[in-house]
Structure prediction request, 310 residues.
Amino acid sequence: MPNGRETSHRTRRNLLAAGLGTLVSCAAPRSILVHEHIFVDFAGAEIASPSRYNRDEVFATAKPKLDAIKKLGCIRLLECTPNFLGRDPILLARLSQSTGVDIWTNTGLYAANRYRHLPAYAKVESALELSRRWISEWRNGIDGTKPRFIRIGVNEAPLGEWDRKLVEAAAITSQETGLTIASHTGRGAAPEQVEILRKLKFPLEKFVWVHAQNEKNHKIHEDVARAGAWVEFDGIGPKSLDWHKQCVEHMAKAGLLHKVLISQDTGWWHVGEPNGGSYRDYDPIYKDFMPLINKNWWQQLLWDNPNRAF
Prediction:
């Protein structure tokens, strides 16, 4: 005879399975994952290079992961790996064509992780000069693929000179191209970025606060959303389900669900690790998280909001 705990676990698995069936058949025949990764090279801006890995090996590992979420209704995945951290539009285009998942790449630069992934030129060029580089990528494409959003990363507050410059460059680029800014945000730096953008008279509906789940004060989540920006609770995983559920439910209660994005920030092939290391699946958001929240929110969170944000 199973004990009470085993019965509880079994019941929960059955409920989740039932919820997933409802999600796939009714609420999310189409869905968008706004923050995932296929490939990352943490070696640093001066070292990261396609010569450090085999695209065929990455392709063979990533394809079944993408095929799995295609069956669950995912039609688009925003691949958030920035330049000098492993961005590879050639690989993404090949995977997109093979799986039928529309995979978006990005322009921009990443100052987070203590500027390890920031190339030397970004430290001396002005915000305007950097924006010209990014606008050129949008106009001319990157290895045959146009970037569909701007990806930057900043460190913890207070922001340094290089962090602030990337925010300004992203704003200039967005105003010229119409692309949305998705900013990896260090602890405490969201309000500072909002203030920078306000001074530039930048429309905050084109700005996404990435990693908002790391901020434990819901009042700040509300303030940023009410200012007009998008609040992204990514990093959804087995150990964070309760916290992410709390974040989404709080925003819904505050009347701000229309400014919320969710995703997993998962994957990915790690250069330098045997067989790319532990490449995580993309389907837990469908199987484990969505059945925990109000099913009336599913389409808004996985389809309506991502389309409006990007």
